[in-house]
Design a protein that fits this description.
6 strands, 2 domains, six-stranded mixed β-sheet, globular, alpha/beta, 50% helix, 278 residues, 434 Repressor (Amino-terminal Domain), Endonuclease, Chain A
Length: 278
């Protein structure tokens, strides 16, 4: 039997299908066996797995019931909801699935606080700006915020992941949502830095050309110690598992951490900026 090779990075539908196939195969189920448990045909399962048919809300809820993911941020229903909204870039749905199970998460961002560190109010202000520009509806904005909160909840576990964040200074200087929202957001960063499983550094403008990244870069160390990378442009996201291209990003991230001020110095910088938002 010929099994079609999947390219999860090619589209959100393909990422959904690749995850479905991986989840099924991890349990040793055939498409027929999964079909009998969900009430769908094996042809339907095959079409979703290969990206030829988009998943429906009902189908995704059925998958969550079968795989024991009901009510979780890592469920198929959450992935389907974001897919339908068109609010996720290519590669991101699969990235979020990995993030919810990663042993170590390394984040770098320019201009905006990374999602795992955002307050609800900050996230809502970011999405409200998209509504104002007409790129999404108010309903989609609300769902994006709820998805983010669920994504954050997936990182709260009995054995939480190590979360390392290096933020460009623009992240804390750029006002989002007004003084009160920014004050609370900066306070959230300080609280984050105080956790036993976290590390926070600010890459100041003075680093200049020594800053190795100009866009978002996320690196995940999975439980099998493999590393995957997720990067974004303005219109496209890309999840990379290939060692030859991931290792240079890991090396550059270590260099970034070496060049950036310490956590104590970074928290002092945040407190200084925070005084100006009060």
């Amino acid at each position: 039997m010929n099994i079609k090779e999947l390219r999860p990075e090619s589209s959100p539908e393909a990422a959904f299908g690749a995850r479905l196939r991986r989840s099924r195969e991890e349990r040793g189920w055939t498409q027929e066996e999964l079909a009998s448990q969900t009430g769908y045909s094996s042809q339907h399962i095959s079409a979703v797995e290969t990206g030829r048919k988009p998943p429906t809300r009902r189908f995704s809820r059925g998958l969550d019931a079968v795989f024991g993911l009901e009510g979780t941020s890592d469920g198929f229903e959450s992935a389907e909801r974001e897919l339908k909204n068109g609010s996720l870039l290519e590669g991101f749905p699969e990235y979020v699935g990995h993030e919810g199970r990663a042993a170590e998460i390394r984040l770098f961002e320019v201009g905006v606080i990374p999602g795992p560190l955002q307050t609800r109010e900050y996230a809502a202000a970011v999405e409200a700006s998209h509504v104002k520009r007409g790129t999404i509806t108010p309903e989609q904005a609300a769902e994006r915020v709820e998805f983010l909160i669920e994504r954050q909840a997936a990182l709260v576990r009995p054995l939480p992941p190590l979360v390392i964040a290096v933020l460009d200074e623009s992240c804390i200087r750029r006002s989002v949502g007004g003084p009160r929202v920014m004050d609370e957001q900066l306070g959230r960063l300080i609280d984050f830095a105080e956790q036993p499983n976290t590390s926070l550094q600010i890459a100041p403008f003075a680093m200049g050309e020594r800053r190795p990244f100009n866009r978002l870069v996320n690196l995940l160390t999975l439980t099998d110690r493999s590393v995957v990378a997720y990067v974004e442009s303005q219109t496209q996201g890309y999840l990379d598992r290939e060692t030859p291209s991931v290792l240079p990003l890991v090396r550059a991230y270590h260099q970034l951490q070496t060049e950036a001020p310490s956590q104590a110095e970074s928290v002092a910088m945040i407190n200084q900026v925070r005084k100006g938002t009060s």
